[in-house]
Design goal:
Domain PucR C-terminal helix-turn-helix: 474-532
Pfam families: GGDEF_2, HTH_30
Domain CdaR GGDEF-like: 298-419
Number of strands: 17
CATH superfamily of the largest domain: Reverse transcriptase/Diguanylate cyclase domain
Protein name: Helix-turn-helix domain-containing protein
Radius of gyration: 31 Å
Number of domains: 4
Largest sheet: 5 strands, mixed
CATH topology of the largest domain: Alpha-Beta Plaits
Distance between the termini: 55 Å
Number of helices: 19
CATH architecture of the largest domain: 2-Layer Sandwich
Organism: Kitasatospora arboriphila
Strand order of the largest sheet: 2-7-6-5-4
């Protein structure tokens, strides 16, 4: 993968600007390159890499001091923090100056994931080499151009109303509530959004190339605005909104919006194609690595991953859908849910559906990541699948490999656990091998017995056949007695029968088959073979 040259901090600030971030300190100047975004997990030791914009999630004010110092040691470009109620403390600015790292304050209402997405898009830069041509800059530049042409305040959104880019405004009083909340990553006032739906505005934007005007609603804190859909043929890609600010919109605003929508469509189509191609290549390389058909170097080079950093594979399998649900649709929904949760917990998570299972590779893990943390992440996915999709999901945690070359071993271990879960040998929904070592091994031995009839004792097969013919429960009673280590009362209670009844059944089983359960080897084999499904025992 080609190294990202970086976006000057000055340009990043000019694009993001108010109301998202405010510069508090820049000891190295504003021309330092920002090459990537790092999300600090408060549960992990603070760390940063060269040229990173570090988002200090979970700490505010003076609590962010260790983050700022670690960012300086790692050569980060900037740290973004949310201030305490009293603002950014001087101690934080002083620490940034000593560390030689820029300090940005983030509005408390801002969603971190929203800032993360916008910053990454800006750092990635223009989509193609043609971006140097007229009208082909990035979406932020396009939004600023439209703002100049219309005298308005501009935002560009995708089909999910997620803000992709917006114009700068020197006067925050120009921004109405809908505009301000949208930039901060929140939805606008629901009464107004309901009105837009009632008036058919969203329907118009999805199905027409024409500009639509929406009147001001002072009672809702909403100013007049124009909007146009961004479309590629019949395919909606997003929307451009122009809010009227301190001065009336220019006469040529509608014409400017038509042109801007066409330029934006080209950029979004190119971005989708490039993203789709990159996703397919990544998926192919990841699948090959997990299956052992390709080595780790190709994936590592493509994504810039460290070959020798710890990595783990999580594997998920869903029960067959019930109630007539479409299996393909259910699988797509489960895959989407897994990908969202995995990305939220580990920004480098990679996902690969293979046959009926979904695998998540977690590369470059912290060396001392607790096993309980991985179990917690997997459990979140299982719980969410049940709550939101009504799907019973099982999750297996592979061993933590000491490099990408050994992730096939991690996947193989996760598969062993899932196989045991599917066969009914493991009751848990989430497990690592250390949790269920015995259950997995017994399950694998049973699978061998099920596959190779020559490994079975014909006398035990005869006992199961006797029960099927006569409607008795001799095999079940023998197994309960063996599991209870010969404690008749314990086994009888488990079967809800009288102890004498249990004694009779065990003696009867020995008489019918010729078994001698006083022999340890026969008891051992019986404990295994009688665990097979009744039709196979």
């Amino acid at each position: 993968m080609t190294a990202v040259p970086g976006l000057p901090l000055r340009q990043l600030l000019m694009s993001l600007g108010e109301p998202l971030v405010e510069l508090q300190a820049a000891p190295a100047g504003l021309d330092v390159p920002v090459r990537d975004v790092a999300i600090l997990d408060p549960e992990e030791p603070p760390a940063a890499g060269p040229g990173e914009l570090v988002l200090a999630i979970g700490v505010r004010g003076r609590a962010a001091l260790p983050v700022v110092r670690a960012a300086g040691r790692g050569g980060a470009a900037a740290v973004a923090v949310k201030p305490e109620a009293g603002g950014v403390p001087d101690a934080l600015r002083e620490a940034a100056a000593e560390a030689g790292v820029a300090l940005l304050s983030v509005r408390p209402e801002t969603r971190w994931e929203h800032l993360d997405g916008l910053a990454r898009m800006l750092i990635a830069g223009p989509d193609t080499p043609e971006a140097a041509e007229p009208n082909a800059g990035d979406l932020f530049s396009l939004a600023q151009t439209v703002a100049v042409l219309t005298h308005g305040v501009v935002s560009i959104e995708d089909t999910s109303s997620r803000v992709l880019a917006y114009s700068r405004s020197s006067d925050s009083d120009e921004l109405d509530d809908l505009r301000r909340l949208s930039i901060l990553g929140w939805q606008g006032p629901e009464p107004y959004l309901s009105k837009l739906r009632e008036w058919g505005v969203f329907q118009h934007l999805r199905g027409s190339d024409a500009v639509i005007e929406i009147d001001a609603h002072p009672d809702l804190g909403i100013r007049r605005r124009l909007a146009i859909g961004i479309r590629a043929g019949a395919q909606p890609l997003g929307t451009i909104w122009v809010q009227e600010g301190a001065q009336p919109l220019a006469e040529q605003s509608e014409q400017a919006l038509v042109g801007a929508a066409r330029v934006a469509a080209g950029q979004l189509v190119r971005r989708r194609r490039e993203l789709s191609a990159d996703v397919r290549l990544t998926r192919t390389l990841l699948t090959g690595l997990l299956e052992g058909s390709t080595g780790p170097q190709s994936l590592a080079t493509h994504l810039g991953l460290g070959l020798r950093r710890p990595a783990t594979v999580l594997a998920y399998a869903a029960d067959s859908p019930t109630g007539g649900a479409d299996p393909e649709l259910t699988r797509a929904e489960v895959t989407g849910l897994i990908s969202v949760h995995a990305a939220a917990r580990h920004r480098g998570a990679l996902l690969a559906p293979i046959e009926s299972r979904v695998y998540v590779l977690l590369p470059e893990l912290p060396p001392a990541l607790p096993a309980a943390t991985l179990r917690g992440w997997a459990q979140e996915v299982v719980d969410a699948a049940h709550e939101h999709l009504g799907v019973r999901l099982r999750a297996a945690i592979g061993t933590t490999a000491d490099g990408l070359a050994k992730v096939t071993e991690s996947r193989a271990q996760a598969d062993r656990i899932l196989d045991a879960m599917v066969r009914g040998g493991v009751a848990r929904q989430v497990a690592a091998l250390s949790d269920v070592q015995a259950e997995v091994l017994v399950s694998e031995v049973l699978a061998l017995l099920q596959e190779h009839t020559r490994l079975r004792d014909p006398r035990l097969t005869e006992l199961a056949e006797y029960d099927r013919k006569h409607g008795t429960r001799l095999a079940e009673s023998v197994l309960a007695w063996l599991d209870a280590l010969g404690e008749v009362r314990v086994a009888a209670d488990a079967l809800h029968i009288h102890p004498n009844t249990l004694r009779y059944r065990v003696r009867r089983a020995e008489q019918i088959t010729g078994l001698d359960l006083a022999q340890p080897q026969q008891r051992l084999l019986a404990m295994l073979q009688l665990r097979l499904p009744a039709e196979d025992a």
